[in-house]
């Protein structure tokens, strides 16, 4: 296995355009964060900056590191890429409150005269309102996972570099939409009550569990391209598929249920219950 990773590293070349794009994004974000941290230090603490940079680094590892040299040979590596994009990079980017921070990091004249009017244009605002509805976000996340693992579409991504880029872009975009109702990046407003978040996450594990069980227990190789791929250390295509399915099963379970547990603990905390009782309207006040 070590020889395979060494070979991948030897054949790897740094993707300059993608790396530059991520570095520029990090620079713009840092500029915006420094500006906002001076005026809103309690809203944009340092950990949000670290989370956003962690999201960019996770995306770089998935798309631009030597790991990307192995995705055509090992389904398990391909699965790691998808999971990094959807369950690590996406929520970390949202935790960084990217919209408001990036807008303050861009030249203000460009925002005022160009980007601002576009974002305030009613059709664009309405589109954003609909796209961030929890039902749409859930369907986007589940749909991307299921659709891109359909053999015909998955094989298209393996055989075409252009479609491979589209596939990865879909996973990251769907991940950002999926985690939006969970993270609620500041200054967005929740559309559903907080108690719905654990249910939202639990239901999201179901299509992933079905797909991972299908890959793990099926007695034939689903994706023909991996039958002829060069795999390290004598790993068979069927073993690789089983490992990919198992990885998805375990990873998604922790990635989705861990924040569900955290949110549930917040809801059931004594402080939160006392606050809800205090703010609940009394019968007299409603008359």
Give an overview in words:
This protein has 287 residues and is an all-alpha fold. It is 75% helix and 0% strand. The longest helix has 32 residues. The C terminus is likely disordered.
- The gyration radius over C-alpha positions equals 22 Å
Please outline the major beta sheet: none
Total of domains: 1
Structural class: mainly alpha
Number of helices: 13
H/E series, N to C?
HHHHHHHHHHHHH
Low-confidence stretches: 282-287
- The outline comes out as globular
Q: What portion of residues is helical?
A: over 70%
What share of the residues does DSSP label as strand, in percent?
Answer: under 5%
Q: Would you count the extended β strands for me?
A: 0
- Kindly state the mean pLDDT as a whole number? 87
Separation of termini? 72 Å
Give descriptors for this structure.
about 290 residues, mainly alpha, about 75% helix, disordered C terminus, 13 helices
Topology, element by element:
Blueprint: H1 2-11, H2 16-39, H3 46-63, H4 75-95, H5 98-105, H6 108-120, H7 122-131, H8 134-147, H9 151-159, H10 161-183, H11 196-217, H12 237-268, H13 270-279
Helix pairs in contact: 2-3, 2-5, 3-4, 4-10, 4-12, 8-10, 8-11, 9-10, 11-12
Give the gist of this structure.
By secondary structure, the chain is an all-alpha fold.
């Amino acid at each position: 296995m070590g020889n395979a990773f060494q070979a991948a590293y030897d054949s790897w070349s740094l993707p300059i355009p993608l790396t530059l794009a991520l570095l520029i994004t990090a620079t713009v974000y840092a500029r915006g964060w420094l500006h906002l941290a001076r005026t809103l230090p309690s809203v944009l603490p340092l950990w949000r900056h670290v989370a956003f940079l962690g999201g960019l680094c996770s995306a770089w590892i998935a798309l631009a590191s030597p790991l990307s040299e192995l995705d055509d040979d090992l389904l398990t590596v391909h699965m790691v890429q998808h999971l990094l994009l959807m369950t690590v990079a996406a929520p970390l980017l949202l935790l960084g409150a990217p919209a408001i921070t990036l807008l303050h990091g861009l030249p203000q004249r460009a925002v005022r005269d160009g980007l601002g009017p576009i974002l305030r244009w009613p059709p664009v605002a309405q589109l954003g309102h609909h796209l961030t509805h929890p039902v749409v976000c859930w369907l986007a996340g589940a749909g991307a996972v299921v659709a891109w693992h359909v053999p015909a579409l998955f094989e298209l991504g393996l055989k075409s570099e252009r479609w491979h880029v589209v596939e990865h872009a879909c996973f990251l975009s769907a991940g950002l939409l999926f985690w939006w109702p969970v993270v609620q990046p500041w200054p967005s407003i929740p559309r559903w009550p907080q108690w719905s978040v654990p249910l939202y996450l639990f239901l999201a594990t179901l299509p992933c569990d079905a797909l991972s069980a299908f890959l793990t227990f099926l007695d034939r190789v689903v994706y023909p391209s991996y039958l002829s791929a060069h795999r390290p250390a004598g790993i068979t295509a069927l073993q690789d598929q089983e490992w990919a399915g198992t990885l998805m099963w375990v990873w998604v379970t922790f990635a989705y249920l861990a924040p569900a547990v955290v949110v549930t603990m917040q809801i059931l905390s004594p402080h939160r219950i006392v606050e809800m009782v205090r703010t609940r309207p009394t019968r007299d006040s409603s008359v």
